[in-house]
């Protein structure tokens, strides 16, 4: 199959615009099926038969139609653009698949990303000395979301369908074209975000050993995470060193990237799965009221140390139960947290005093909005 190149895509867009109609009500550029067939013929003449694949009747039927049976040309063009990008990405990834098994290992994914950098507007001016580190940080997100069993290789098909690739490809956009600092910071693949994560690790690594001890990790996020959570992170997600001594276990950079990804994506199944393993103190696959009490006790301690009002741990425990509404009234499972749509909030409340403060403050604001204003005394 021959792919459309950038000139072909420009020609397709011009052809669509020159042969569409303008909707009087919305001013949107649209085409009916007759227009669609005509444009297909014109494009085939101008571009060649490689564009025919996009002009099938089934493709036309995929798009929302107005009362006159017309579809907007922009969604159709974006569909073509995305299909071409995904196909090119599949070809490029497959070229890095040394085992030809449909999977990429970390170094293969890093090599693929390295090849993209010159073509991504927001990355092409990156310092040469930072490129390898950037590729390591970027590749880790693909593996966090597409290698759930931590086998060290991720399925190419799964990576193509993930949001990760879409976020990475957004960096095609020129940086001056209204890409705000907030948008850059929120996109894991932006240079701003990669530098932020790298700087965080270096700041925490006080002894410059290249890995983090429990004591060093406790300073993450200004020390708002609980000690029991940090302990559980090391129990569940940090491999022991070659020495058998417990104190030899430290968090390497890749494990730190997973840690940050989990905390910054708590509402995703992957992020919540990572955190649930830490919350599951007994490793039984569920949380009991006793587990909730143990976890929140550390949050409560930090809450009081911060000068906040006294609160009842049992009340918070009951509130969490009400939020989750577990299928079994005696225990909360990962599926319960995923199903209640508030799993990320519950996890934050149990591991981070700042997360609990954000929830508590939101609840107080909601109560204030619901309370009717007091009538003035006559």
Automatic annotation (TrEMBL):
The EF-hand domain, residue ranges: 192-227
UniProt xrefs under InterPro entries: EF-hand-dom_pair, EF_Hand_1_Ca_BS, EF_hand_dom, PPP2R3C
Taxonomic classification: Eukaryota, Viridiplantae, Streptophyta, Embryophyta, Tracheophyta
Lineage: superkingdom: Eukaryota
UniProt keyword list: Calcium
Record PANTHER family: GENOME ASSEMBLY, CHROMOSOME: A10, SERINE/THREONINE-PROTEIN PHOSPHATASE 2A REGULATORY SUBUNIT B'' SUBUNIT GAMMA
Keyword field contains Glycosyltransferase: no
Name of this protein: EF-hand domain-containing protein
SUPFAM superfamilies in alphabetical order: EF-hand
